[in-house]
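Sequence in, structure out.
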Amino acid sequence: MKQIRRAFLDTEDGQILYRIGGEGEPLVLLHQNTKSSDEYRELMPILAQKRLVIAMDFLGFGDSDKPPRMYYIEDYAKTVMLLLHSLGIKKASILGHHTGAFVAGEVAAAYPERVNKLILSSIDYFDEQERTALYNRFSDAFQIKEDGSHLIKRWPVRLSYIGSIELNHRCFLDELKCYGYPPYAPFAIVNYAGKSIERFGLINCPTLILSGTEDIKQLERLGLAKAENRQFIAKAISHAKVVDIEGGTIYMMNQRPEEISKVVIDFLDVRGN
């Protein structure tokens, strides 16, 4: 397995932690809320056998600094550009999961000359009702309770579908780093969702859309998304190829690295798709 090392990028809004390993054509990996680059801990060593792989912690998440102001999808897209510039990378492919997929899509829309291929994983269109539900759910989230009840409340949330106490602990630790600060990513998505179809209609690079079949069921149960709305993004990017990951959950990047790496490498290796 290729060694993955860590480093920091200095920006005007704070330091960004990133992981990097491998060599060859670059592939950037962007995580979901409330995770970090740890979302790709299992996937990176596999992909690094054939690519230069880079995963960053968004500002406000993981071991990156908390930004001094509210950050939006467009801001996160700019930080991706800052990281590529600092590494001397003129063009890269990008994979984003959930929140990371919105950022990846905005990078491809705003900086088309910098993107080779795009992979959007478990990305949803949120209508006005769903945006309201998302806002209400997270507006009071990440508050530190004096009695520590937030610790007990959040631990069991994922156990029914995460399948691993160790992975649940890693996800829990990432989430705890978000407490005491604004819910940057959910507010960013709420701000961006209304224009996402228009923005994604600008994407012209080869695009693969992944969808975890259990992932969307979980979001439906939470009242945060509808299965039929997951098709809106694919329609906006009419040339996109769509692949379902059977049994894939919200945390499928950690849980299904062998299967996902094969789908990703197969897509990246095909010329002219």
